Amino acid sequence: MVTSATVVKKRSRKGVIYNLIKYRYLYMLLFPGLLYFLVFKYYPMWGVLLAFKNYQPFLGFWHSQWVGMQNFNQLFTNFEFLQLIRNTLLLSLYNIVFFFPAPIIIALLLNEMRKLWFRKALQTAIYLPHFISIVVVVGITFDVLTTNGGVVNHILQQVFGTQIDFLSSPIWFRPIITLQTMWKETGWSTILFLAALSNVDVELYDAARVDGAGRWRQMWHVTLPSIRSTIVILLILRMGAILNSGFEQIYLMTNSLNQNVANVFDTYVYFVGLTQGSFSYATAVGLFKAVVGAILIFGSNYLAKRFGESGIF
């Protein structure tokens, strides 16, 4: 006996086949992107099993000894763990406090400019550092801040009669890293906010002007509330990357004198994984970062919804 559920199931199956045939060229366009994610994103996820094994290259991936949570226990009891947490969180805090608002402020200022040619020229100028390699940025930093002929220390020597060893000082490490990030990425990060600002209803500004609001009041009561959802979404994504400090930049700026403040999870994984050959332990550290990032994304998304925002899912 054929039931109604069976009929609906057959119809839905025919509908799927019909759509696959009808839109076959669109699915063909989708295939390369889907293949990329399957090969380079999902298939490598099997590698997280290394975090629960004592990986030995001569035994192979599947035949290495299963050790369960031993690598995680080693991480949490390691004397460097608190230092890693502190250094990584402080760098992320610097980025959230100083770097995250910078693109918003620049986008608001650019949006207020009435000279279109000047606005485009300024946008191009602040976008350009994004395309410069971080190696070049670090090289520029060394040339500017070095005590051996650096511009900044030359000025300090002429004005105050003293020099500051910025590159070796643990105190200056985090501000320099933050300033590098701001100089390189602030202009590029304004693109999303400028796109959001272009969608603000012009009639809202007209109504604000009728009510006697000046440019500052219009920005505070019209512009910022209109892009609030974009700010919240980007902040949620930023929270998910709170344990990511950027390997290349930190590695290039690290030396023996500032290592105590420069030791973060990204460089730690490199040193214990590749230079010391502790592949399983390094994988456990990376998995810990990923789990914390996922928890922070879900938690911040939940809080955003509790405060009336749409969140990211």
Automatic annotation (TrEMBL):
Location in or out of the cell: Cell membrane; Membrane
What InterPro entries does this protein map onto? Answer: MetI-like, MetI-like_sf
CDD domains cross-referenced by the UniProt entry: TM_PBP2 (cd06261)
Q: Which domain of life is it from?
A: Bacteria
Transmembrane segments in this chain: where?
A: 21-43, 89-110, 122-142, 279-304
Which positions fall inside the ABC transmembrane type-1 domain?
Answer: 85-300
Chief place where the protein resides: membrane
Q: Which SUPFAM superfamilies match?
A: MetI-like
Task: Give the UniProt keywords, A-Z.
Answer: Membrane, Transmembrane, Transmembrane helix, Transport
Membrane topology recorded in Swiss-Prot or TrEMBL: Multi-pass membrane protein
Q: Which PANTHER family does this UniProt record tie to the protein?
A: POLYGALACTURONAN_RHAMNOGALACTURONAN TRANSPORT SYSTEM PERMEASE PROTEIN YTEP, PROTEIN LPLB
The record's similarity note reads:
Belongs to the binding-protein-dependent transport system permease family.
Can you say what this protein is called?
A: ABC transporter permease
